[in-house]
Amino acid sequence: KEFGWHTEETFNSDNDSDEETEAVQNSIVFNIKDNLDEEKTIKVSTLEEFDYKSLKKDGYHFVGAYSDSDYTNYFDFSNITQQAYDIYVKYEVKEPFQKQENIDLNEFVEALIEKTTSFIPYWDKEFFKGKWNYIDGVFLNSVLNLYKNTGNEKYKEFFIRYINYFIAEDGTFVYYNADHERIVDNSMGYTEGELDTVCASKVLFDAYEMTNDPRYLTAIEYTYNQLMQMPICNQSPNFWHKTFYIHQIWLDGMYMYGPFLARYALLKNDLSILDTIKSQYEYIQNHMMAENGLYYHGYDTTKTIFWSQENDGRSSNFWLRSMGWFSVSIVDIVDYYPDGENKEFLLNLLNDLLNSLLNFQDETTKMFYQVVDRAEEIEMVDNFYFNGLNNLKYGNIKTLVANYAETSGSSMFAYTFMKFGKKYQNEYFKEIGREVFESVFQHSYKNKSLSNICITAGLGPENKTYRDGTLSYYLAEKVGSDDAKGVGPFIMAYIEYTY
């Protein structure tokens, strides 16, 4: 049959009311055709009545709704003024998981290294930084561990050379402006007032062990002092995430500073620091864990922030990568704890989280979703979010976006499951981790490029109200390829998988 909306002459009986006739005339008709050669017509009185969630199809991922049959222009729902619209919907088959064999990522890693300069690293898809930062730290951590497991001097040389670009001979952090001018100044080379920058300094302990270069100890002490200047949240042992995220705890933060601080405790032989870290995890468990065992992205200890929809301090959703950071922080941090109550608490916390997460693993792909508990859910995303985030893929429109299997968070959990399983004799977790890693390799690694990576996500601050923790927000964030927040965990999972 021909696709399109057609009017038909209607003969009303004497009993037909004027209201019914007017309702028909004022209705909105969406004629929907998809790339599976299926058609349907949806008639509503208002856009709010449009049940777009019914477009979800088992076994398929919703790619988008378009205004043309070539699927090039997303359909804009922001200005529905006429009676009839043709919408073209595109789906992709969800490829069932297949066991992978002979996975080798060495060429991928070497290509990333060859494409990279310290000034502009290939893996940073956000913006120019020119200073010590956590994104570089995530990738350097993966290169460091490749060196530890392979003994390949190429990795060590790259690792040390990269670090020395940002840390001067006397241990001062270095800043480079856009003109490549080198400025040796801690206040410019190290971003103060945040937990993120601490993350990069975690690798300095290994750099010192490799070289005995005292510059790294100086940089470690500077990092520690900066961390100790961070404010403490209201009625909590936890740090503010950043000085402009007042009294806020984010799951991400535990990875950003936790492993560094635990390593520092061993350096100084001060185990009381490990007690403090354990209490911070315990606070998060008590205040940020939901009944389903998942963890909310953020918590405002004053319970006044705009993104806490229920005014209980919690954000609204379970963002995969935030829980990924959180899980990796625990599985790494327990390496520094002696046997005892603290270590047992952390292992039990992680065990419970991993078991809860498995309830939301995608049965087809074996990956996990950007918003963990809302698999393949379709959302009407307002242009308010796209504009605020400068997401040019969609532009200034209101359109439908679907939740998706996300690479960085899935890789983090692949790593966590495997490391936990191998170290603590849990064969089940080990095999789950291998399965998740193979699924990421199968679905996201194509032509030596790693895709489906959420580039960034956060909550607020008050002048960025589009970062509100809703499903619309998390789906409106940019998705890209080869960003270190995906590549680093992917390589770390590969190391656990291979060695």
Give your account of this protein's structure.
The chain has 499 residues and is α+β, with helices and mostly antiparallel strands. The chain has two domains: 18-93, Immunoglobulin-like (Sandwich), CATH 2.60.40; 106-498, Glycosyltransferase, CATH 1.50.10.10. 42% of the residues lie in helices and 12% in strands. It is built from 17 helices and 14 strands. It has helices at 18-26, 106-115, 134-150, 153-166, 186-189, 196-200, 204-211, 214-228, 251-267, 272-288, 320-333, 341-357, 383-389, 407-423, 427-444, 471-476, 484-498, and strands at 28-34, 39-44, 60-66, 84-93, 174-176, 182-184, 248-250, 298-300, 378-381, 399-402, 445-446, 449-450, 453-454, 479-480. A four-stranded mixed β-sheet has the order 2-1-4-3, with no helix packed on it. A hairpin with a 5-residue loop joins strand 5 (174-176) and strand 6 (182-184). Helix 11 (320-333) runs parallel beside helix 14 and helix 15 (427-444) crosses helix 17 (484-498). Mean pLDDT is 94; it is low at 1-13.
